[in-house]
Design goal:
By secondary structure, the protein is α/β, with parallel strands linked by helices. The protein is built from eleven helices and twelve strands. A hairpin with a 5-residue loop joins strand 5 and strand 6. The radius of gyration is 19 Å and the shape is globular. 48% of the residues are buried. The N terminus is likely disordered.
Length: 325
């Protein structure tokens, strides 16, 4: 019988041929890289970066896709893909900058749909930096969501976001890095160094939880503190996590530990809110691996995140509770 990707990972972790000669920190990174590579291979997309703006349009980063074999992602720096054409929604206007880089405007909203959404939910966040792993890749991918109106940029625009940065990379965690990848902290720090100011959405934790469970020396709270330090008091919404797995590094029990750590951290940061994705995610939205989502799942996740941002940081204030749904 053919083994699943998870079976291969567990067998490798148990194998006597695993490089025991590595020092502890190097071994942890090596183990984490195997874990990250599995998540990458399951989704089949290495890295995708999107910059979207309303009206003038801001720089669009490149989007790169790997094969299902889990090839390493293209080299990135601060969340920018180093090469490759921009991935634009069908029909989106594309312009060329002086350096030849493609620029694209955010997908237009239909007047009726935009008006209905405006009456329902509006956020005070006009600029958003969204940093995520493979559970974000599907929300910006035409392969999963052929209709641009279902993708993350359109959903954010519906609730009033005017400028959006997205860095979504398969296998990404806050600390560990796959070859050629920038970790979550590195992406956030890079954008801060470029002068970004606005709201932050962190859709990270699934891989961090797995990496900690196999021996990383950087704990869950330490990872949260790293990301919160970049925001400098600006609004932050964390998307908590869920899987359908009963055992292993990505088990639902481990995900609950991460979610509980987010809850413990929230009172320390007046600017932090948590979107309770774990309570919103329908089991039917998960793909067969129990970690990623179907197209319907990615569509609902994109809307839930945008709506959650509007509830966490509504126009004229912020929610009184750490947790929003």
């Amino acid at each position: 019988m053919r083994r699943s990707g998870l079976d291969h990972l567990y067998a490798r972790l148990r194998s006597p041929h695993w490089p025991q000669s590595l020092t502890r920190p190097r071994r942890v990174i090596a183990v984490a890289s195997v874990a990250a590579a599995l998540v990458l291979s399951l989704v089949g997309v290495a890295v995708a970066g999107v910059f979207a703006g309303t009206g003038t349009g801001t720089q669009a980063a490149g989007a790169h896709a790997s094969s299902a074999a889990g090839h390493p992602p293209a080299a990135t720096s601060g969340g920018h893909a180093s090469s490759g054409p921009a991935s634009s929604p069908p029909g989106a206007p594309v312009r060329k900058a002086a350096d030849g880089t493609a620029k694209t405007a955010a997908p237009a909203r239909s007047p009726a749909r935009a008006q209905a959404r405006t009456r329902a939910l509006v956020t005070s966040c006009r600029s958003v930096a969204h940093i995520g792993d493979s559970t974000s890749v599907g929300m910006i991918s035409p392969d999963y969501l052929p209709d641009p109106a279902q993708r993350l940029a359109a959903r954010y625009a519906d609730v009033g976001v005017r400028h959006l940065r997205v860095a979504a990379s398969g296998g990404r965690s806050i600390v560990e890095e796959m070859p050629g990848q920038v970790n979550g902290y590195g992406v956030a720090s890079g954008w801060r160094g470029e002068g970004y100011q606005g709201c932050w959405v962190y859709a990270l934790g699934t891989n961090d939880t797995a990496n900690v469970s196999v021996g990383s020396s950087v704990g869950l709270m330490g990872r949260i503190e790293q990301m919160m330090s970049v925001a400098h008091g600006e609004p932050v919404m964390w998307v908590n996590v869920r899987t359908m797995l009963a055992s292993g590094p990505w088990s639902e029990a481990n995900m609950q530990t991460w979610n509980n750590t987010l809850l413990q951290a929230c009172p320390r940061y007046p600017n932090m809110r948590i979107l309770d994705w774990a309570s919103l995610a329908n089991p039917g939205w998960f793909s067969s691996d129990g970690i990623h989502y179907t197209s319907a799942g990615f569509a609902d996740r994109a809307q839930a995140i945008a709506d959650g941002l509007a509830r966490a940081f509504p126009r004229g204030g912020h929610s009184n509770s750490c947790v929003v749904r």
